[in-house]
Amino acid sequence: MTHQEPAASRLPPAPFSTERLDALPLRIAYADEMAAVLDDPALYAYTGGAPESADGLRARYERQTAGSPDPGVRWWNWVLRIRDEDRLAGYVQATVNARDAEAEIAWVVGTPWQGRGYAKEAAAGLVSHLTRAAAEEEVSIVVAHIHPDHAASAAVAAAVGLAPTAQWHDGERRWERRCERRWDRNPDRNLDRNPDQNREGGGESR
């Protein structure tokens, strides 16, 4: 039997860290603790839905960790661990469209840990992780969709360099940040770029 490498869309994301947080690749085993972290209906006021049971999260995490069925799309999910407390407090996620070099991001911090700057720190760490020069996946645009009444989420997006656009999706405004990729700094690679390439995305942010 020959060994087969997993499809790129099924590879787990690399972990990353910020000053106070460790972003750990999602595992099904986190479902029990995350069910408690996300067990506040207020977290869903602008995005819809409701808290899920640990069993419900296990089923969701099984689907997410299995990866996108589209080989050109990566489903990357991390849980956020507060390093000093050694406990989970939320998550970040990115849907990376390799064809468009676009990453749609979202972040959620549990209610007990809000107001401490964790959402901004996590979002900034995620954007840096996705766009730094050494990143495995080349990302030229980072996108978030935010409810117009969700001032806290808009403040986080602005703080990490995203700006509101005139585009809307399902009642949420598209925010975006365009980033210089490695090939943008290489004139020879620019000869192969398509400046008219369309970029679209969808997602949620809190």
Question: Could you characterize the architecture of this molecule?
Answer:
- Helix content is 23%, strand content 27%.
- The chain has five helices and eight strands, in the order ββααβββαβαββα.
- It has an eight-stranded mixed β-sheet with strand order 1-2-3-4-5-6-8-7, sandwiched between helices.
- Strand 3 (73-82) and strand 4 form a beta hairpin.
- By secondary structure, it is α+β, with helices and mostly antiparallel strands.
- Helix 1 (31-37) packs across helix 2 and helix 3 (118-131) packs across helix 4.
Number of strands: 8
What percent strand? Answer: 25-35%
Tell me the helix content.
10-25%
Give the overall silhouette: globular
User: In this structure, how is the largest beta sheet organized?
Assistant: 8 strands, mixed
Distance between the termini: 46 Å
| Helix run count | 5
For the biggest β-sheet, the strand order reads: 1-2-3-4-5-6-8-7
Derived from helix and strand composition plus strand pairing, the structural class reads alpha+beta
Order of helices and strands: EEHHEEEHEHEEH
The overall pLDDT, averaged over residues, is: 85
Which spans of ≥5 residues are poorly predicted at pLDDT below 50? 1-5, 183-206
What is the C-alpha radius of gyration, as a whole number of Å?
A: 17 Å
